[in-house]
């Protein structure tokens, strides 16, 4: 199992009911073992996007089987409550009714597989904060960029899977405390044991869509989603309060993401801060960052510390 190879020390300590070591890369993520002995982390969830062709029990069961095949079988599912769908379209209402009032075929499948379906309280999306934030992040840019594009099922599926990869590529915390290590822990490490990689492709975002082949249009859509999402993610990492509150200064040795323009999909330029330059107010204004390609000076506004 991938987790056993990458996080063997952490799993061994948790099996002995010991906490992970202070120098563990998972220390700040509150790791634990579930009932099946699988390593989990508190508050960090992978994103799985599925497309259904209709709202029948057969289609829903097929979707669950695809999910189990890729992520493993789950004992519990948590969903929004029906009242959160007030004013929603008929398709969403139909899907909700199918789950809350399953027919014999669906209820029999859930019972046979030992699956329990739970609903959060009405009008309380905060109870589903862990998945709400991830789903919102994916749907927001998917809707605004793909919009009314005329895509085939396979093309749309490709876009959705690429969005999954984008969300799983985001850096969470340093992979180690070694100042020479420029790698970060990502959600992908818990799924495949390493960071996500993408096929190197030319930038198509500035080209006219009508001049592109169909597969190039799909690539262009994914690149547009990447550009929008990774900028918004970095913006969230930079807490702006109009200087009303003084934040903790960066320190030498911190691993940070460099804000660069036109980065390829899944590419997060990371670097270790090697020197800081303070202004007359003792606040850091400029930092020197060591990257894989050398050392550079960057304004503090062009550097983001990792979220954990």
UniProtKB/TrEMBL annotation:
Pfam families: DUF5641. GO terms for biological process: DNA integration. SUPFAM superfamilies: Ribonuclease H-like (SSF53098). One of its GO terms (molecular function) is nucleic acid binding. This is Integrase catalytic domain-containing protein. It comes from the Eukaryota. Residues 44-195 form the Integrase catalytic domain.
